[in-house]
Design a protein that fits this description.
START-like_dom_sf; Polyketide cyclase; alpha+beta; 30% helix; 7 strands; 3 helices; seven-stranded antiparallel beta sheet; Polyketide_cyclase/dehydratase
Amino acid sequence: MAFVIDHTREIAAPPALVWQALTDFDAYPQWNPFAVAATCDLRPGGAITMRVALRPPKLMTQREFIVAVDEGRGFSYAMKPAPGGLLRSIREQSIVDLGDGRSRYVSHFQLDGPLSPVVGAVLAGNLRRGFTGNVDGLVRRAEELAR
């Protein structure tokens, strides 16, 4: 059984500015309360390394790998699966042009594998808070860029 966190938000900014905010990894400390620092080789197989506030104020380093990039429209990344497929994750982020300088941002996070119910149960509140803060921060950042 998978553990899933989904967010869909409309943003008063064109897709190019949402993409700019999402991929300006050096600026993450300014707006992202969950991934408070990030570096990324934004190409399939490249690494994304984040300092994550999963249980603030403690930070942990999370290194994942880019699965796909659709320039200007989104990207996804996944953790290195645990041995035997016990735990795997995917984070997919996409941007849809709504016209009139507006966008829809969709974030999907999923944990799968036999350990996913346990990890999900233990970290559910922290993960939901973290991803909600991440999405809210992205909306604010993109809308600031659009002003």
